[in-house]
Structure formats: structure tokens, C-alpha cells
Design brief:
Structural class: alpha/beta
CATH architecture of the largest domain: 3-Layer(aba) Sandwich
CATH topology of the largest domain: Rossmann fold
Helix content: 25-40%
CATH superfamily of the largest domain: P-loop containing nucleotide triphosphate hydrolases
Number of domains: 2
Pfam family, one: T2SSE
Strand order of the largest sheet: 9-8-10-11-7-12-13
CATH class of the largest domain: Alpha Beta
Shape: globular
Largest sheet: 7 strands, mixed
Protein name: Twitching motility protein PilT
Radius of gyration: 21 Å
Domain Bacterial type II secretion system protein E: 11-306
GO molecular function: ATP binding; ATP hydrolysis activity
Family: Belongs to the GSP E family.
Strand content: 25-35%
Length: 344
Amino acid sequence: MDLISLLRLTLTQHASDLHLSAGLVPILRIDGELQQTSLPVLSTEQIVSLFEPTLTDQQRQHFHQQLDLDLALDIQDLSRFRVHLFWQSRGVSAAIRCIPSEIFPLTHYDLAQTFEKICHSPHGLVLVTGPTGSGKSSTLAAMLEHINHTRHAHIISIEDPIEYLFQVKKCLIQQREILRHSHDFNAALYAALRQDPDIIFIGELRDTQTIRLALTAAETGHLVLASLHSASATKTINRVVDAFSASEKDSIRQLLAECLHAIIAQVLVKRKTGGRIAVHEVMLATPAVRNLIHENKINQLYSNLQTQSAIGMITLDQHLKQLTQQGIIEPAHARAVALYPQNF
């Protein structure tokens, strides 16, 4: 059993993820659900040997010291994959995410017109949020590719690892990977501010300092796109503010109110015809939204979202309702992710 064969199996089964875990058989995630394969049980030694030839000396040292590692694999004539290696109670495990070889155009998304308007902003913070495996990276890649085709701008991406690879079109795009091109996110972000960027893409806002730097970059006239783990657009506000100490919360809230441009929250829901579709909640930083954030009236943001569909805002439940009425998703699947499941 070699790595290429396992990755090829993942693609032929249309799986989004492959899990290799010591003491278990390989497991695939297909349409959001885990399915065991009929392959033999893997040991720690076998899993390590699968990835050993792909690692640099620096990556080996990082895995030995930190006990986990992020990396990307670009397999010729196959696809690109994001890999996370880590230790657990039975030994070593690997979580492998398939990255599509082609970037979806924004027209692939149900709310393409709203996303295009967001991409045309000259500055501000754009957050794409959702749980793990909800397609945040794909949405951000589609937005960056739209910018690449429609604007003359300098884009710097900071990722761990680099997922989608971009070809220069109208934009100058420079992709930097942590451990390969910079020591960490904070160092790369500090450096980015001295590299004359128009747009900064941050793969994930992981800690307080990264969030602080992203807010600073947005405040100083850059368009900053980033992903964050949060369940909804409104909860994202608290997620950002709560990352800071009590003494800083008020000042961070004011800074966020000033520099926020948009929040796109998303989940993936099964289609009736098979596969999954991205369902979104979109909050735009209108004067009313900025004022509510400024005054810490976060609980009133949802009702504001519900009434601003004319300018492109939408709640997750409203989008679910549209897709249900169009016969694209089942009401039962909508209920599973809706804020108010009784409405479905």
C-alpha cells in the first residue's frame, strides 16, 4: 500500500478527505460522512514511511519537536493535497484534504453577485467563516481568482500550507508558506506590510497576534481576506473580540467596527442529486452594522441581516429556505444546520 494508491482511491471515490490513523484501516469522508475502506490496518511505522520521502529536513525537525505538522503535496497527474500529521493515543495519524485542481469561478456560487461586490472593495477586512471542512478555502480561492482576473493589484498570500496555486493574470500574486518562506504567520504578516501589497490573504486567523495584525492591515488601507472558525456571521464578531483580554476588548471592538467590510459564514449541505452545496450567511459592514458593533449590540445584528436582502445580506436560514423551495436540498438537511429548524 503506497501513498499514491491511497490518494488515487480518495479521488476515484469522490472523497473530500482521507484519514490514516495508526491501528485502523484507512477512512474516507464522502459527502460529509466517514466511511471505512476494506484496506488493511495501518501501523505508525507504515504511516510515517508513507510521508517520510515527501518531508524536508526542516519539516522532519518540526514534526519531531512540535508533534504535528502541516504540509501540502502536489502529485503530478493526480491533484494537490493538504496534509496534517499528528500524534494521538494509538500512534501517528494523517488527515488529508483533497484540493481541486481547478479553482471554481465565483459564478459557481449561488450568491456570486454579492461576492463579486465584496471583491471590488479597495480595503477592509473580509472574513470567511465556518466549521472545519465547510469549503472556506475554496470560497476564498474563488474570490482571489476573481480579483486576479478583474483587478490590477498586488496580492500576498500567507498560508500553512499553500493550498490552491494561482497563476498571474492581471494581479501580481506572491504566495508564501509558513516554514518554507517565513518562520511564522506573525513574521510573514509584519513583512507583508513592507512589501507594497494591495491585498493580503491569510490562510487562517489562528491567534490573538495574527488577528491584531490583520485588523491593523485592514485599517491601514489594505483589503485583507482571511478564514476563521466560527458558526455564523454574528458569532464571528464575538469570536474576534473574545480572543483579546478584557482590557483590550473595547478598543478591538471599535477597530473591528471601523475596518470590517464583510463576513461570509458557510456550511455544506447535501444536494438531492448527490454531492454538497455551499450555503451562506452574508453580513456587510453597513453604517448600521458598524454602529451596532461599535455599541456592542451584537444581539441585534441578526435582525438587521434579515431585513437587508436588497443590498446582498442574507441569513443562513434565508438561504436554506431558498434552496429548499428550489428543490435543491431536502428540508431535513436544512433543519440539521438551521438556526431555527422549526421553520423547515
